[in-house]
Amino acid sequence: MAFQRLLPLVALLCLFVAPPSSAVPSLHPVVLVPGNTCSQLEARLTDEYEPPPATGCGVPRQGRGWFRLWENFTELQEDPTLLIRNVCMEGLVEALERVGYREGENLFGAPYDFRHAPAAPGLASRAFSGFSSRLRLLVERASQRNGNKPVVLVTHSLGGLFATVFLDRTPLRWRRRYVKHLVMLCLGAGDSPLNMWPLASKALASSPTSLQAAVLTCGNRSFASMFSLMPSPRVYGRTPLVITRDRNYSAHDMPEFLAAAGFSEDEVARYRTRALPVTLSLRAPLVPMTAMNGVGVPTVDKLVFWDGNFSGRPQLVNGDGDGQINLETVLALQRLVGADPDQPYFKTILIPNTTHKGMISDESALKRVVSEILGASS
């Protein structure tokens, strides 16, 4: 993956002994903060794994050591005839290179462990604190490497949450010195009801029917970041998001929903005390910001488990959005960020018929994204 080739943070000390730059000198440095599709997940088969009787399951090929998971995670053996299409940030990196950006010179990446999440202000979060320290150092040194120009932060999906919380917790003087612009792709104010589905499916988690189901349920239910991606009461209010015969659940009812989905009292308490305050504290970053989102794609607005059986497949009620982030959360950005009198600049751009992943892979969308980055760099 091209994003995985981006300069690791530990190699930043080499910046000051690098050869003369081939990058366009007028450009402001760019730091990419990816979504969770850029994470490098690996797996191994333990002694508890019992392969199915059918041949070709991949066990002899993979053995018992660690191996990289591929995009098609419903299979245990990669199909060699398939062309792997990178949905990380390869397309965006290549598009930026065509206009003069160079990895390690004025183009950098800030990876993180997507399983973790920012904690509420005042609460410890070792993973996020480490990410924040590394990102701050990266931004400062990228600026120094490029004539002390402030950087353009470009985020995708979950990376936008990490970046906005990071900015909110850094001194305003630092933000205005080192961050020229925030370009946030594919994220609204609060996340989608779609994320409530894997959290609901406890039965699938205990007995997954496929590797995909195991990833979506066993994995996501245990990730702190999933609680941070729950719908925000500030956006959805009392609107029903999960509908059953006996009762409905709105964004205000997330603790009750989690309890009904089988989470323990301790897990529900962690949502209340660690994740919900982060969701409710979203505010303007007080640096120039452009939000770009796709629309025109059916996107989940509500989940219907009519019989109350969360282990089954829900009926999906769709609205507008990019297939993952719905339009309501995008429009809420104008109210929660754009309307802040202290926000120096805010613009929202809606790109028709563009999916969540298409924003960083489709040629037409990439042209718009690169154009905005260049505009922010001017």
Automatic annotation (TrEMBL):
Keywords on record: Signal
InterPro entries (alphabetical): AB_hydrolase_fold, LACT/PDAT_acylTrfase
Signal peptide: 1-23
Keyword Signal annotated: yes
One GO-annotated biological process of the protein: lipid metabolic process
GO molecular function: O-acyltransferase activity
Record Gene3D superfamilies: alpha/beta hydrolase (3.40.50.1820)
Protein name: Lecithin-cholesterol acyltransferase-like 1
Protein species of origin: Triticum aestivum (Wheat)
